[in-house]
Design brief:
single chain, Rossmann fold, Nucleotidyltransferase, domain 5, ten-stranded mixed β-sheet, 14 helices
């Protein structure tokens, strides 16, 4: 977020916030990357960048997100541009996601959903390319669009990008010089510093001074390859005074995230990855001997259908029962797992449903394809009289587990004492590095289905 105010004569004054946002917008780098945590004013910094050129009728900028949905999301690029660009006379063409400025300059918003989508830009000349959330794009997409970063309008072509940390992205390696390899945090004294590189095939050669790269020759013309300059400007929520004042609760929202996401989005950590013990610890749970009254119940299943033998180590069929209590806390009341044939799995699910009772809803995963549909159809028929819903899995396993992890970490989850506790605790503490993740998957399904079920009532269905 930045400042937009009325000056003398009703003239609109738009200025960045002091600190990292100003440093990013003042950078002379060919490629400048900004951010590294949530709430640092990244979107507004990116949207302000083209404004220095809008008096140039030949100038054009293109903003990229991975998908059109992300461009149009509430609080996303297009939404925020509607708060900024009209104040300086820009006219929107929403059907093509483009702003036209009075002098003739334009700013467009587009997607690169698939790697091959970059071919839609073959032959283009784009003076300013902006990537919002650079880690969402593949290296192939980025480097292809670098080749489209050309200009005939008098503006030196350049690239600006924002991002949140992702230890497994190509961006993490690209900006590694600016990141402490031990802590994963930005090195303060390197913030905004320029480095230069040339790219030979897929290899990047770095230097602290462009003269150090003069020996790298373009074989097509025998001339030295012009090096490009790069910088990384880290920013965090506390650098965004405007957002902190407008939404003081946002800090609490970030603090409530699971450990890994909190370290990434609040702390700006580029090295942290989900690992055993980071997403779940038994010490975060309160083990109780009785279930408080008034719980609403959900049993989530993760399905396997291969018996255990001496020569194999198949996945488990696992079922977890979770209740939501009237005070907003949750209780894990039961967990079971077994390795059975398909008929054995059916017996396990049916017997468990009978033991749970009809006030416990049941959530089943539906695998893609006809076999998955047939399995769910058979199980649903078998469970006639019970409330059963089947849905496909959405997102990766860690993403699905994170909402439950967040509630456990802040002490909102009780566990009913039982003989199943030790196996369940051990399995979840080993997630996601353990050989099997069936217990975590059934727990995620029960918890997320319970949340979804809570939004539907007879009044709003």
């Amino acid at each position: 977020m930045a400042g937009a105010e009325q000056g003398q004569g009703a003239q609109t004054i738009i200025r960045p916030q002091a600190g990292p946002q100003t440093a990013f917008l003042a950078s002379p780098a060919d490629i400048a990357i900004y951010g590294g945590s949530a709430g640092g004013g990244k979107t507004w910094a990116l949207l302000m960048e083209p404004l220095r050129h809008v008096a140039n009728p030949q100038f054009g900028a293109v903003f990229f997100r991975r998908s059109t949905v992300q461009v149009r999301n509430e609080g996303g690029l297009w939404d925020e541009s509607e708060k900024l660009y009209p104040s300086i006379g820009a006219v929107p063409k929403e059907h093509v996601l483009q702003w036209n400025f009075p002098a003739g300059a334009s700013v467009s918003f587009a997607h690169l959903e698939h790697d091959k989508t970059v071919l839609n830009w073959q032959g283009s000349q784009i003076p300013l390319i902006c990537f919002d959330e650079l880690t969402h794009f593949s290296a192939k997409q980025f480097w292809y669009m670098v080749s489209r970063n050309r200009s005939m309008c008098g503006v030196r072509p350049y690239i600006r990008a924002t991002c949140n940390p992702d230890a497994d992205s190509w961006v993490a390696e690209f900006i590694s010089w600016w990141i402490n390899p031990d802590t994963g945090l930005p090195i303060p004294e390197r913030a905004g510093k320029l480095r230069w590189f040339v790219r030979i095939g897929d290899a990047i050669v770095w230097a602290d001074d462009p003269a150090e790269l003069s020996d790298y020759i373009n074989p097509l013309d025998g001339e030295p390859i012009p090096p490009k300059s790069v910088t990384f400007v880290p920013a965090k929520l506390t650098d965004n005074a405007a957002l902190m004042a407008a939404d003081p609760g946002y800090l609490a929202n970030l603090m409530a995230l699971p450990t890994v996401e909190r370290e990434r989005l609040l702390g700006g950590n580029w090295k942290i990855r989900p690992a055993a013990g980071l997403l779940f610890r038994r010490g975060w749970c309160e083990v109780v001997d009785a279930i408080p009254a008034g719980a609403r119940w959900m049993r989530g299943w993760d399905l396997g259908a291969t018996p255990k033998t001496e020569s194999n180590d198949p996945d488990w069929t696992a079922g977890t029962k979770i209740g939501k209590l009237p005070d907003g806390r949750y209780i894990v009341a039961h967990h079971c797992r077994d390795r059975q044939s398909p008929s054995g799995v059916e017996r396990l699910i049916k017997n468990t449903a009978e033991a749970d009772g009809k006030d416990t809803q049941i959530s089943l995963p539906q695998d893609p394809g006809q076999a998955g549909k047939s399995q769910v159809t058979n199980l649903t028929k078998m469970l006639a009289g019970f409330t059963v819903r089947a849905t496909p899995e959405s997102g990766d396993k860690i993403t699905r587990f994170s909402p439950f992890s967040a509630q456990v970490e802040v002490g909102n989850v009780l566990v009913l004492r039982g003989p199943w506790n030790e196996a369940w605790f051990s399995s979840l503490e080993g997630f996601p590095e353990a050989a099997h993740d069936d217990d975590a998957d059934s727990t995620s399904r029960a918890f997320n289905a319970l949340l979804s079920a809570s939004t539907f009532t007879l009044a709003n269905v």
